[in-house]
Amino acid sequence: MMKTTHNELTDTQLILLSAASQRDDGVIALQERLKGAVATSVGERLLALGLAMEQPTAPGQPAWRQTADGERWTLVIT
To answer: 35: domain range?
Structure first.
């Protein structure tokens, strides 16, 4: 397993992880201001570091990405 230090995470990533840890469902709600390539970059980084995993979006959960066929995915802390 890869070790991660706080120096490897941006303030935004730390805030998102902290907020997700306080949710009952552990969902990482990418902020409204994070759109497009920025949201993708943040999400991919958390996935690469093993700090998040993807799962299909449940009703009422925020999605971090949507596939071409309309399937919505959310990030959850690990």
So the answer is: 10-77
| Residue at 17 is within a domain | yes
Q: Has residue 4 been placed in a domain?
A: no
Question: Inter-axis angle of helices 11-21 and 36-48, to 10 degrees?
Answer: 70
pLDDT of amino acid 25: 92
Secondary structure element (H or E) that encloses residue 12, with its range = helix 11-21
The segment with the largest mean pLDDT, out of 3-12, 35-44, 62-71, is 62-71
Say if strands 65-66 and 52-56 run parallel, antiparallel, or are unpaired. unpaired
- 49 with 77: CB under 8 angstroms? no
Q: What is the pLDDT of residues 17-47, one digit of tens each?
A: 999 999 999 999 886 667 778 888 889 999 9
Kindly list the distances between the CA atom of residue 16 and the CA atoms of 20, 30, 68, 71, in Å, as whole numbers in the listed order.
6, 7, 26, 23
